[in-house]
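As a warm-up, study this chain.
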Amino acid sequence: GTYFIGANASTSVSFPTSFPNACVHADCSGGRLDFAAQDNNPIISGFSQFSATVYSSADTSTSGSWFAIGY
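Now compare it with the structure written out below.
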C-alpha cells in the first residue's frame, strides 16, 4: 500500500485484508535521500494483524509505500 505522512508525525495504515493470526513483519520505503540530514527516513513503529503505524522524524511531509507479511 501507500501512505502520506506529515512532518514529525505518525500515521496508521490499515491492511486491505486483516491477517487471520498475526502480522510478522512490516516495512516501508519513502523519505528523502539527504546525507546531511538526521533521521530523515520513515520507519514502521508498530503493527498488528489489522494495521501498521508509520513514523517519520523528517521536518517535511513525505509519501511512500509499505509492505506487510503475516499468517
